[in-house]
Specification:
By secondary structure, the chain is mostly helical. Helix content is 45%, strand content 4%. Strand 1 and strand 2 (54-55) form a beta hairpin.
Length: 91
């Protein structure tokens, strides 16, 4: 009887371990992107940096962003201000 319980516990541990490995694989999918990873794109709403990594923020979405919701701070500010009827002046 003890061996049946041991086998059942071992099977449960193995199933949980396999599920954790599968989850880890999903979480690391497409961490590299763009020209560094055969044109792979990042998960939705993530930018592909110039160095081929997925993420958010200026390091990923600004200078030389390869794909995703890339942006350039100054032009976007000017577009927003212009759409509101505000003209930006250089000081």
């Amino acid at each position: 009887m003890a061996t049946m319980k041991a086998v059942a516990v071992a099977m449960k541990v193995m199933v949980v371990g396999l599920l954790l490995l599968a989850y880890a694989r999903l979480m690391t999918h497409a961490q590299q992107c763009g020209s560094h990873a055969n044109g792979t794109v990042c998960a939705i709403n993530l930018c592909c940096s110039q160095y081929g990594y997925c993420g958010l923020g200026g390091d990923y979405c600004r200078t030389s962003c390869q794909s995703g919701p890339c942006y350039s701070l100054c032009p976007k500010q000017n577009e927003i201000l212009a759409s509101r009827g505000v003209e930006r002046f250089k000081v």
